[in-house]
């Protein structure tokens, strides 16, 4: 049963109790001496009032003595019935103040209480957003179960059926794209995001979805910023110049092309969006490193170049957003910082990365070591420090000798 109904049913029962418990308790109460005395005093007061009225009518000549005596006797007889407990309980005559009660006092409110939610549900189905409430569970499951391939497959089927039944609604297509991405089906993800963007109004939400479209177009075009990708980027930035996903894509492309000035400008915009976040601290480090590389201009630094061919083992299914850290270290001196390092994501694999003196992260570079080894780490925590559950692979040690050396790494082993 959807969460909406699990919450609605207890609330309905609670509201019913608020009405029915007081009515039930009231229906169980029997007349006591106090209530009888109140009725008795009220009836006596009414008798006195009516007797005075008859005397006034007799004095005014409106009635004669015989009529007065007859009416007064009738009032006296009725008063005796009303003020006598035994007679009031058994007499067929009505009292001046009849006792309230009856089954209808409980039945009618109960019927109304039961009808209200039924009528409300019928009206809500007609004019409300109950279908949006029903599909919200699918959206929440997409967020909660990110990385769960089996759950993603089930959500693709459920969201696909809903999208077919409601082709004019954008968000089912967006979350369909999220699940396709989790399954590594990047072409399908791009198409789903594109359909969602077509259905959205030109707001910040559409800019966000266009950023996803551009990202997957970029990945599907072998990480090349084609004119088609740039057109989507321009459309997103025209709506929201500060769209995070677009800035991240532009920064990544500039870094890939070693256009450090552009990469730094994009990173600074990303820092402005969230200056105190962990991402901002990481970007400040990358900016400092890129500024050193940019200062070197177009100067070609001497030294070895390691061509790292990186891939996942066949059948290994990991979240495409996980970060992958690739580093070259001195094989003769353990414990030192990496000689060169670069990072990417699981979604970018398989890929070929180059490590050279341009990628130095400490006081030493690749040219300073006689023998090196290369490592690749898939980090679930998003940091370059290995932890239990991460995936890591190490190459054999080798001497680069200032040359271009190919290194093949296949990620397969999980750390205990």
Compact description:
The chain is of the alpha+beta class. Helix content is 57%, strand content 11%.
Tell me what the structure shows.
This protein is of the alpha+beta class and 416 residues long. 57% of the residues lie in helices and 11% in strands. The protein has 14 helices and 7 strands. The strands form 2 sheets. Strands 3-2-5-6 form a 4-stranded antiparallel β-sheet, with no helix packed on it. The relative contact order is 0.05.
Tell me the layout of helices and strands.
Layout: H1 3-28, H2 33-59, H3 65-83, H4 85-90, H5 104-127, H6 130-144, H7 149-165, H8 170-182, H9 186-199, H10 204-220, H11 227-239, H12 244-256, H13 260-273, H14 278-295, E1 305-312, E2 323-330, E3 340-345, E4 351-355, E5 372-379, E6 391-394, E7 404-411
Parallel strand pairs: 1-7
Antiparallel strand pairs: 1-4, 2-3, 2-5, 5-6
Helix pairs in contact: 1-5, 2-3, 6-7, 7-8, 8-9, 9-10, 10-11, 10-12, 12-13, 13-14
